[in-house]
Design a protein that fits this description.
single chain, about 200 residues, Nuclear Transport Factor 2, Chain: A
Length: about 200
């Protein structure tokens, strides 16, 4: 009789453990689905250039106040492509998305931009306008030059593998930290602002 009770207890314990593991697996799959959807929404926000949406899906993101320059950079993100390699659930409130992002090569953008600016400022046309040029005129010339570089089709794309931290915020998930915004916008924005000074 004792053996029968022990066997029955063991079977019940195994069934309970199995049910628990299956429910945990289901919860993890559900979390991965939610994280993927939020990551996709964040990427679409960047691709659309919608600053309000970017702020909605990215926690603690600082998008520079130089709206004209920011708009120029965001306009270059419409053609980025990405694929999610994996999602690791760290716990119920944080996860890591490993993704490949293919976008215009920011280092080549900067190189071409500097070359174009150097050619422009040494031109007779630019020199003839220098005495009457306002700060606004200068900024517009610089932004227009950046637009030409970004839309000219000369800059190759580059694929970067990134690990993006995601965190639960109420019922939704958000990009946690600035790594993704820095990669897509802020690093280029800051570098160009320094060149313009």
């Amino acid at each position: 009789m004792r053996r029968f009770r022990f066997a029955a207890f063991a079977v019940a314990a195994v069934l309970a453990l199995s049910a628990f593991l299956v429910s945990c697996g289901a919860d993890e799959n559900e979390i991965k689905t939610q994280v993927q959807q939020s990551f996709d929404a964040a990427m679409e926000a960047f691709k659309s250039g919608d600053v309000d949406s970017i702020k909605q899906y990215c926690d603690s993101v600082v998008v520079n106040d130089d709206t004209e320059l920011r708009s120029v950079i965001l306009s270059s993100l419409g053609n980025i492509e990405y694929s999610v390699n994996s999602i690791t659930v760290n716990n119920g409130s944080s996860a890591t998305v490993n993704a490949d992002i293919t976008m215009i090569d920011a280092s080549k953008v900067m190189q071409k931009y500097v070359e174009n600016i150097a050619a422009m400022v040494s031109s007779a046309e630019y020199q003839s306008k220098l005495d009457t040029m306002t700060k606004e005129d200068y900024d517009k010339l610089m932004d227009d030059e950046l637009s030409k570089v970004l839309s000219g089709g000369e800059i190759p794309n580059v694929t970067k593998t990134v690990s993006v931290q995601m965190k639960k915020d109420g019922d939704s998930w958000k990009v946690d930290g600035s790594d993704l915004p820095d990669l897509l916008v802020t690093n280029t924005l800051n570098a160009i602002k320094q060149i313009k000074q």
